[in-house]
Write a structure and sequence with these properties.
The protein has about 90 residues and is of the alpha+beta class. It has one domain. The chain is built from two helices and seven strands. Strands 1, 2, 3, 4, 5, 6 and 7 form a seven-stranded antiparallel beta sheet that branches.
C-alpha cells in the first residue's frame, strides 16, 4: 500500500499455476456485475471500487481511494501503467 496526502494505492497480487487459473481467479474476485474488457490487451474486470487484471500467471487487484472514496478512474490508470510497464520489459 502506498499513501500520499488523501490518496491511497493498494495492489494485491495472487500468483496461480498458469494464466488460465489467474484469469479464473480474477473473474471470481471481481464478482457479479463487473465489466470485463480486453482493451489493455489482457483480461480486465472493473467494479465500482477496483480493477482486476491478469499478467501471466498473476491476478492483480488495483484499488485507489481519494479522500476516503473509491477512485476507479485512478485504479484504471494504474492498471494501464502496469500493463505497459510489463510489456515494455
Amino acid at each position: 500500500m502506498l499513501v500520499g496526502g488523501d490518496t491511497e494505492l493498494r495492489l494485491e497480487v495472487r500468483t496461480e499455476f498458469n494464466g488460465a487459473e489467474a484469469e479464473a481467479r480474477c473473474r471470481a474476485l471481481a464478482g457479479d456485475g463487473t465489466m470485463e474488457s480486453l482493451s489493455l490487451g489482457t483480461p480486465v474486470w472493473t467494479t465500482a471500487k477496483e480493477v482486476d487484471l491478469t499478467r501471466g500467471a498473476s491476478c492483480i487487484r488495483v484499488s485507489v481511494t481519494r479522500g476516503g472514496q473509491p477512485d476507479v478512474v485512478g485504479a484504471s490508470a494504474v492498471a494501464r501503467a502496469l500493463v505497459r510497464t510489463v510489456i515494455a520489459r
